[in-house]
Request: fold
Amino acid sequence: MPERRSVDPQARERARARLAQRRAQAAQNPNDSRQRQAARPSRQQGERSVGAKYSRAPRKRVAQSGRARRQVAAEPSASSPTSSSGVAATILRLAGRLLRAIGSVFATVAGFLWRAFRRLPGKAQVVVALVMLVVLVLAGRSCAASFAPAEGEASAASQPQAAASQDDSQAQAAQEPQTDFERMDLALLSDYLGEDGLDAFVEAAQKDDDVAWIGAHVRDYDDFGYEIQAKLLKLAASEPAAVGFVRNYVASAGSTDSQPCDPVKEGIVPALYQWDTRWAYADYSRSVIGLAGCGPTAMCMVYQGLTGQSDKSPYDFAMDAIAHDYVHSGTDAGFYVWEAESNGFSYQELDVSSSSLKKALNSGNVVICNVGPGDFTQVGHFIVLWGINDDGTLKVNDPYSKVRSEKAWDLDQVIAQTQALMSFGIMG
Reply:
């Protein structure tokens, strides 16, 4: 086998350069290339010796080229990845030899110490063992201390983290609604109140924190049903004096507690309100007096105005109506007849006219007016008419509205909404 020759990398680069130069020249003079190709004898027409010549030469060059490739693969250049891996392998072999040498030294020393230790007397062995144990413990503690961060460093490292966490908490808190007014669900309120009612509620909430609280806790009233929720929200928006009743409705509805009325002046029909928290939360007509008790509250005003006594409250009249079965989706008109007889009052149903109303009021009677949809209600409602002002307007006590009770009303405007008039007086 011929001896394998090494390939000079520089010679290979020069050969590649010459080959590239020839290809460039051939590209510039394609006619010369074709002429030289035509001058060459073809493999079919050429003599056998010529064919042999051209068939052997390429095989020799291929063989040399293969040997060259194998030689290059065996001796990589310093800049190739294979060269880098070879250096790493050499370093690992040296490191392994060094570790084996160190291990051999330690083994020799340990063996010598062990033989020396075995030669010591028993007590000396115990002492030496204890000393070694102490040394090992101290060394372990020293190592642990060297790896543990200093207290100041740990504190300093924790401060940025604590500050970042505090900043995140503050940013999150800043994004969340901070007040009940900001937490109000306007879309939900609009479902109950409509656009006009929503505007009135928002305006009231801007002035009264309790109204804003109600708006932020609408869901708390879900158990009472849509109709009651809507009525409570409208009441809170329209009646500032009733806001406390609405806010405490969830916690107090159904209570049987009742408190007495304030003293009354003779000849004055007091303005009493069904949502007064002294009696408002008692059950009445599938709801409470505060929402459905306009009938017994109106009768209580008639009683106190005619007698000058405050010993009975709207709660007492509501219990009378329930006890005698005058409550059916509201208060039946028969309730007023029964109360007039029970308390010694005269009772008369009036024609729905301005003249009959004026006559009853001018005679000192007190009139309960059943109004339909209009200024006072959208369904049906009882109000108390108890006098005529000097300008001819009516004195009206609306048990559901302090705002309307403090207003003077045009007589014809009220009559236009009236469905029935019931006059009460002192029997002569």
Summary: Strands lie at 283-284, 287-288, 345-350, 366-371, 381-388, 394-397, 418-426. Confidence is low (pLDDT under 50) at residues 1-7, 36-82. DSSP finds 19 helices and seven strands in the chain.
